[in-house]
């Protein structure tokens, strides 16, 4: 151990900054390693809404902490807010967590040693603990009416003061308060907060605790507008608030680690006061940042703030979504963000990043494509499920325009599978798959052709372009052979341009490449309507010989009607 260097300056003791850093290093930097004992963690949602990305992230981090240490992951439903409870939220919660691949070890549906696991079934436990706080002087009954509290808050707000309580009811003796309570007079139970809450060590932010009240606030307390942040523990209906139920449940369920969003950090000092009042050991806390969109705004319901069921409906893979969520505020050194649940358990630690996290949909799309490639390569049940979902979506779209269908046989599922294998890296969702590749399934109007000064290259060489592919038989119509045909056609056209005395071509070394680019743009426009998509050879191979030639010839005829003769005339005049 080192001895800190201290110097007496006047009436104060001064410690050099280096020694101060060394002496507080352990306190300021809590261990980021997992505990050496089995951790007990919990996910405690309220059924006032559906599971979303933020709450799934909370569930996942707590799940990983438990599983990585050989501990238990507990599901607890905090259902005491009856007014805001959504009827099917609890049942959907179970379904969504199971769909995502997170299975709990104890919970409302499977029981456990420390149940019940629904707060509405633990009311007597909370009330008995509230009674202990009343008896020890750490809490008091408040009989103030809602009208008085509202008026008090308004008066304080108008004066620019905090809207905290004024502790008027602490003047009531315990005997009188008990008697009024026995007579069923409406009241709540409040926690009596100390001037300074106990400090706790957050795994992300280090030592956290309320500073001692400022001189101004101390003067306010001594004057007419005294205020105290005394949270309600038991509501007038006898049910507990989040503060009391959360602490009591975590203690009795032997929770060792609590990982939750930073928005709950202001509540933690109140909880620490409760732990101290009960003389209980608090769990280890870690508060992780909020989720923001690409513009650093809070997630919108039009974007990734959708509930988890929406991701399932859209066709996202649960593994891809969990992988995506795991990256929100967790720092790893694996070198690749493609990490399945088993690898997450194997490599997880408590190294969370400070600050908020950007949840970019592009990352999710990337991971979705990576998992699509993995499933296609493995060819297992996930792959078959992908094909089934795609078949349902594609068949539904085709049923809306049966006259435009490309394929009239009963091999749609096989064709979908073939296209998926060719385009796996770009896969995101079934609807996006059809929207992006719809020209492979049905005939659609082409985009408007973007005219170019050298469009005459197409008109002058259209026979060569069409005949090059016509010479390929159905038996030889494959991606490899079509690549050879395109290469041979390129050589033939360049030889033609080189030998016909085209001055513009001879003087411009990039002319050949530029003209072939126009030819390829025409083929994409002919085959795929000008959209981005697979390579030309992949498209032609999927469409087949007859349909490919039909589209090329049809596009050539269409081009004749939209490329004016003046383009060709002016090009010839310029020697092009």
TrEMBL record:
Q: Which residues form the Glutamyl/glutaminyl-tRNA synthetase class Ib catalytic domain?
A: 40-352
Under Enzyme Commission nomenclature, its number is 6.1.1.17
- In this chain the Aminoacyl-tRNA synthetase class I anticodon-binding domain maps to 521-555
Keywords in UniProt for this one?
Aminoacyl-tRNA synthetase, ATP-binding, Ligase, Nucleotide-binding, Protein biosynthesis
Tell me the protein family, please. Belongs to the class-I aminoacyl-tRNA synthetase family. Glutamate--tRNA ligase type 1 subfamily.
Cross-referenced HAMAP family = Glu_tRNA_synth_type1 (MF_00022)
- Which protein are we looking at? glutamate--tRNA ligase
């Amino acid at each position: 151990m080192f001895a800190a260097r201290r110097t007496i300056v006047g009436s104060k003791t001064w410690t050099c900054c280096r020694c101060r850093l060394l002496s507080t290093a352990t306190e300021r930097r809590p261990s980021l390693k997992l505990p050496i004992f089995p951790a007990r963690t919990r996910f405690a949602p309220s059924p006032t809404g559906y599971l979303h990305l933020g709450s799934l992230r909370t569930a996942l981090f707590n799940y990983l902490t438990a599983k990585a240490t050989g501990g238990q992951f507990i599901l607890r439903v905090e259902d005491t807010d009856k007014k805001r409870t959504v009827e099917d939220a609890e049942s959907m919660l179970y379904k969504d967590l199971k769909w995502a691949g997170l299975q709990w070890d104890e919970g409302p549906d499977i029981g456990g040693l420390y149940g019940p696991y629904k707060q509405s079934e633990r009311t007597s436990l909370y009330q008995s603990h509230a009674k202990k706080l009343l008896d020890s002087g750490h809490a008091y009954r408040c009989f103030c009416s809602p009208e008085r509290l509202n008026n008090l808050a308004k008066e304080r707000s108008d004066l620019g003061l905090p809207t905290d309580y004024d502790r008027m009811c602490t003047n009531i003796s315990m005997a009188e308060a008990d008697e009024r309570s026995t007579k069923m007079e409406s009241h709540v139970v409040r926690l009596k907060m100390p001037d300074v809450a106990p400090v706790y060590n957050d795994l992300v932010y280090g030592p956290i605790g309320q500073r001692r009240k400022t001189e101004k606030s101390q003067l306010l307390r001594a004057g007419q507008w005294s205020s105290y942040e005394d949270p309600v523990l038991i509501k007038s209906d006898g049910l507990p608030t989040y503060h009391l139920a959360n602490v009591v449940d975590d203690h009795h369920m032997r929770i060792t680690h609590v990982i939750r969003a930073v928005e709950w950090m202001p509540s933690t000092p109140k909880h620490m006061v409760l732990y101290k009042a009960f003389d209980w050991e608090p769990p280890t806390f870690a508060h992780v940042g909020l989720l923001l969109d690409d513009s650093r705004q809070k997630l919108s319901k039009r974007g990734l703030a959708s509930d988890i069921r929406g991701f399932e409906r859209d066709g996202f893979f649960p593994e891809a979504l969990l992988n995506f969520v795991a990256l929100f505020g967790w720092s790893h050194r694996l070198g690749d963000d493609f990490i399945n649940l088993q690898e997450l358990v194997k490599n997880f630690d408590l190294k969370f990043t400070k600050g908020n996290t950007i949840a970019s949909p592009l990352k999710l799309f990337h991971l979705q494509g990576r998992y699509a490639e993995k499933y296609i390569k493995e060819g297992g049940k996930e792959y078959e499920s992908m094909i089934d979902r795609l078949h349902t979506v594609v068949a539904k779209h085709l049923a809306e325009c049966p006259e435009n269908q490309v394929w009239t046989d009963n091999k749609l599922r096989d064709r979908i599978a073939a296209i998926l294998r060719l385009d796996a890296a770009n896969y995101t969702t079934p609807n996006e798959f059809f929207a992006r590749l719809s020209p492979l399934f049905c005939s659609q109007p082409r985009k408007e052709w973007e005219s170019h000064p050298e469009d005459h290259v197409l008109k002058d060489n259209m026979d060569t372009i069409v005949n090059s592919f016509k010479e390929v038989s159905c038996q030889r119509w494959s991606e490899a052979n079509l690549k050879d045909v395109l290469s041979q056609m390129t050589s033939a056209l360049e030889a033609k341009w080189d030998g016909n005395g085209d001055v513009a071509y001879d003087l411009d070394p990039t002319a050949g490449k530029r003209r072939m680019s126009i030819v390829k743009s025409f083929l994409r426009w002919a085959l795929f309507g000008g959209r981005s998509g697979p390579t030309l050879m992949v498209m032609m191979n999927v469409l087949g010989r007859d349909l490919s030639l039909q589209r090329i010839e049809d596009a050539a005829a269409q081009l004749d009607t939209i490329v004016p003769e003046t383009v060709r005339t002016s090009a010839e005049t310029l020697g092009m």
